[in-house]
Design a protein that fits this description.
The protein is an alpha+beta fold and 84 residues long. The chain is built from two helices and three strands. The chain is globular and about 35 Å long. The protein starts with 13 loop residues before the first strand and ends with a helix. The relative contact order is 0.25.
Length: 84
């Protein structure tokens, strides 16, 4: 089934999720993974103006609710994923 077209906006939050390769668990302790994600979240908030409403870290994936007032979701997620 094809992915729905993304409707870009600066008001309503996006739900973003991503899973590790082959659904494997993170290879380092969860508290270290948490610190890595927190640092990356701070960076995208500061550098790109993203607003993180919620972030949930699971054993092999995450869920995030965020808004991008500058309509730069691609830049935000590109930086976030490459940093993590």
């Amino acid at each position: 089934m094809p992915r729905k077209n993304l409707i870009r906006n600066d008001i309503f939050p996006y739900h973003v999720t991503n899973r590790t390769q082959d659904q494997a668990f993170y290879p380092i302790p969860q508290d270290e993974v948490w610190e890595i994600y927190c640092d990356a979240l701070r960076t995208v908030c500061w550098a790109y103006g993203a607003k993180i409403h919620a972030f949930v870290l699971m054993g092999n994936h995450y869920h995030m609710l965020l808004t991008t007032p500058e309509l730069n979701l691609d830049d935000v997620m590109g930086h976030f994923q490459s940093t993590v």
